[in-house]
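Handout, page 2. Input:
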Amino acid sequence: MLKQPSITAPVLTLLLLSPWGVTQAGDAKAAEAIAKQQCAACHGEDGNSMVPTFPNLAGQVEGYLVDQLEKMKSGERQVAEMTAFVANLTSEDIKNLGAYYASQNAKQASVPESDLEAAERGERLFRGGFKDMQVAACMGCHAPNGHGVPQMFPRVANQHRDYLKKQLLAYKSGQRKSEGGIMNDIAFRLSEQQIDDVSAYMHALK
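Output:
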C-alpha cells in the first residue's frame, strides 16, 4: 500500500523562498553543437521531441532544466537513458543547454476529438484543483498558460501526454522525488484517471 507523503505549510513556504532553481544564465549559442550532436536524436534539434516518451525541452524553464540535468549527473535523479549523456557534461555545458532549450519555440499540440472530454476534466483540475482531496490548482505553480514560473516550476504546456502521465505516476508511487515532496503529495492524492485527464489538457495548452 502506498504511504501518503505530506508537506507542511512552513516547509512549502521555506521552499518557495529558497534559491532553488535560481541559476546564472547560460550561453545558448555555445550549447548548439551539443544539442544537435548529442540530444537531437531523442529531443529533436530544436527541443521538440518526436517520441512521446521523451520530453519536449523547447521553451522549458531554464533554471528547472539546469537543476534536473545537475541532479541526473550527480545521480540524485535516476534516468537510465540519460546517464551516458550527462556523464561528460560540465557545469558550464549544463547551464548553456538550459539557455539553449529555453530559447527554442515549443510546437503547439492539439487534442484529438476522442480526448476532448478527458481534456475538459483535466482543465477543471488544472485551473480549479481538487478540493475533496485538498489539491491546489496546477496553474498556481505552473502558470495559467502552463509555461512555468522561472526559475522554479517547469513548463508543462505542449509536453507529451505520455511523458506527463509517466512522470505524475512516478511521483505518485514515489519512484521520482520532487523538491520538498510537493509533487509527490499532489500526485498521491490524484487518481490515475485524473492524472490522465490533466495530462491530456496540459499537452495542448498554448
